[in-house]
Amino acid sequence: MTMPSLNRKRLRLVAPVALIAATVGVMVVPGPQSSAAGPVDGMECETSSSNSFSLTASGGYASTPDGNAIYMWSYGDTGGSFQLPGPTLCVESGAHVTVALRNALPEPTSIMFPGQNNVYANGKPAQPETDANGTLTSMTTSAGANSGTVTYTFTAGNPGTYLYQSGTDVQKQQQMGLYGALVVRPKGHADWDNNNSSSAFSPEHEYLFLLSEVDPDAHLAVERKRAFNWNNYTPRYFMINGRSMPDTIAPNHAAWLPSQPYGALIHIQPYDAAKNPKPALIRYLNAGTTSYPFHPHGSDEQLIARDGHPAQGPGGEDLSYSNFLIDPAPGQTIDTLMTWKQEYDPKTNPIPSDIKLPQLQDQIVGPGTETWFSEDPYLGQTNSQLPAGVVQNNQCGEYYHVAHSHALQQSTNFGASFGGMMTLIRIDPLNGCPTQ
Ligand SMILES: [Cu+2]
């Protein structure tokens, strides 16, 4: 396939990803307020020089890999198009942030900013709302149905990763998709996760994993204005950034996913003290109703923060730890650093002879006949002796590892394996991946 000639080296690396999606895609430049041309993979920040954002809550459709179209509610840029999840808002700690909400939904809605203190709504402290009987109707000041507005202001707190989400009829509205990510960056250190220099990461390798789930029956009931018995709630789709595998590995702004702009492919290079000294940063957010026992294959990750709090003791001791399992609870956020350490080298440190490598037929996957293995165990090398008819997705001897929820029903699309809350980690050779 021909890639558009945007001036970005990393563009050409997505060719096999687009290929596996079996769709010829054209890169789309992001919406009006998104940063620059936007990276093909990695977290895409929405920034504002005045830290002012305008969001509209509205309805639209998200597609799933099995061909379903789910009616969702979400926050999008006012004047822009519907998107799931809401824009990733990036601000600096201490900034005075304004978020103007316009409500295009047929019922009141709102935005909560958990983790931010002293949130104001229309100039007064934001506060819960009750109906005439004193029953709680919203956990924060809402915007009325059908074009109501409310403007929230707050001073961005501790650096870290936060959800923003509806505070109104939360069970229904959060399920419908009213959530997004708020990233608070340390003052003067946009390439640190928090105020500790040990949280430095490579800005080219910053990733968002906003995890959520969908019960299509609930969404159909809302779309058709029917009652839904939440006792029957059964999620069938599981998403990273509003997409399910294999859509998770498609590029940001893939043309065939017009309302799901954010990909979830991790794309890194091995550690090298001179060429690649800094780790990748992955920001996990759980906007669902249950824990998602997420884990990468092939490497662990260093958990460095939860809910905007660095993993450190009262005296500042480093309490970060390395783990395969990253298990955010509902409403929780977790930040991790990931470093790929290259263990073996064909010249200096070859693989021990007693390690048996898997046979080629065990590396070929369906549907169809494809392989993501270069047939050479060393990163950056290929040994292509493929049987006729096998499609090689490997470009330059890069590695692919899966990363997914290990609650395996969450790694399905309506029960069909593998899909759902799953993505790939791609590790390129240190010097990049030359086109072939
Ligand atoms: Cu696994």
From TrEMBL:
It comes from the Bacteria. Coiled coil: none annotated. Residues 1-28 form the signal peptide. The keyword Signal applies. Residues 83-187 form the Plastocyanin-like domain. Pfam families: Cu-oxidase_3. InterPro entries: Cu-oxidase-like_N, Cu-oxidase_fam, Cupredoxin. SUPFAM superfamilies: Cupredoxins. Keywords: Copper, Metal-binding, Oxidoreductase, Signal. This is Multicopper oxidase domain-containing protein.
